[in-house]
């Protein structure tokens, strides 16, 4: 009985994990080898045809490029700006505590609300952003309908929303760094930049490691902003993998094709995560 009891205690969580995580992944892989229109019960086995069609689809290759560009911009922007903001807020003052609450506020706002707010801010004719830029003599910029900058505009929205969360995680890591290390550096008359790169960054590297992998996964899952603001346009320039899967699965009823794209997304994330852990985990300093 004592040997069975631990398994009984973890059984509810294990069942939920199997039903809502493992089974959907397995069923998606199964569907990727079939054609199914979501209406008729018959599923036609097509083997690797869905994957061959994806690889030969120029639109899908563009979607992958968009996803990678979006991921790079959002991850770098979120981590770098979050670190700088955390360093700025790393003060034990009342103003600093107020600013911490203010910067975290966007993270708890629903993505739908954020999308509508930024759609107005970036409006080409009446947007607040262009209104301020006009004071500096800059003419109106079509942030969301220009194929060259639309994906970067959406990345800015993601960075703004996640900035407070990243900053607070890094801020907590900064506060856990022993003060005697900084005191020793001060005695040695070490320059501030050297202290930051040689002491601060290595000491907070576990938090940076965690945030980087979470931001990578989150950037590949982007959906709401694209669905509500650009719908993948203009000319497919903001279409990413999850929205592409949604379109083919629920707009065009090509469930097998969409499932194949989902399998590729799963493989991309898996390979990137394994590579990240294998290579960059060596740079993480655990005290």
UniProtKB/TrEMBL annotation:
SUPFAM superfamilies: MalF N-terminal region-like, MetI-like. The keyword Transport applies. One of its GO terms (biological process) is transmembrane transport. CDD domains: TM_PBP2. Gene3D superfamilies: MetI-like. The chain crosses the membrane at residues 7-30, 68-89, 101-121, 149-174, 195-217, 255-277. It is found in: Cell membrane. It is a multi-pass membrane protein. PROSITE patterns: ABC_TM1 (PS50928). Its main location: membrane. GO terms for cellular component: plasma membrane. Keywords: Cell membrane, Membrane, Transmembrane, Transmembrane helix, Transport. Residues 64-276 form the ABC transmembrane type-1 domain. Belongs to the binding-protein-dependent transport system permease family. This is Sugar ABC transporter permease. The lineage of its organism: Bacteria, Bacillati, Bacillota, Clostridia, Eubacteriales.
């Amino acid at each position: 009985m004592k040997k069975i009891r631990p398994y009984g205690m973890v059984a509810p969580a294990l069942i939920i994990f199997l039903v809502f995580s493992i089974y959907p992944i397995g069923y998606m892989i199964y569907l990727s080898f079939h054609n199914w229109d979501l209406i008729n019960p018959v599923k036609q086995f097509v083997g690797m045809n869905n994957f061959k069609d994806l690889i030969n689809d120029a639109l899908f290759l563009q979607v992958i490029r968009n996803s990678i560009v979006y991921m790079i911009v959002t991850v770098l922007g979120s981590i770098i700006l979050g670190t700088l903001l955390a360093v700025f807020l790393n003060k034990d003052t009342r103003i600093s505590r107020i600013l911490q609450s203010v910067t975290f506020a966007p993270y708890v706002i629903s993505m739908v609300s954020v999308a509508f707010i930024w759609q107005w801010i970036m409006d080409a004719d009446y947007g607040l952003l262009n209104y301020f830029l006009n004071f500096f003599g800059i003419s109106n910029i079509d942030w969301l309908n220009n194929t060259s900058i639309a994906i970067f505009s959406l990345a800015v929205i993601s960075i703004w929303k996640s900035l407070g969360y990243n900053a607070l995680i890094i801020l907590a890591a900064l506060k856990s760094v022993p003060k005697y290390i900084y005191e020793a550096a001060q005695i040695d008359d070490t320059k501030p930049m050297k202290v930051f790169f040689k002491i601060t960054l290595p000491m907070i590297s576990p938090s940076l490691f965690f945030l980087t992998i979470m931001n990578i996964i989150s950037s590949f899952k982007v959906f709401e902003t694209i669905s509500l603001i650009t719908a993948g346009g203009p000319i497919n320039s903001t279409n990413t993998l999850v929205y592409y899967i949604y379109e083919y699965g629920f707009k065009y009823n090509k469930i097998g094709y969409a499932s194949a794209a989902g399998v590729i997304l799963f493989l991309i994330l898996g390979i990137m995560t394994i590579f990240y852990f294998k290579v960059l985990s060596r740079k993480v300093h655990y005290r």
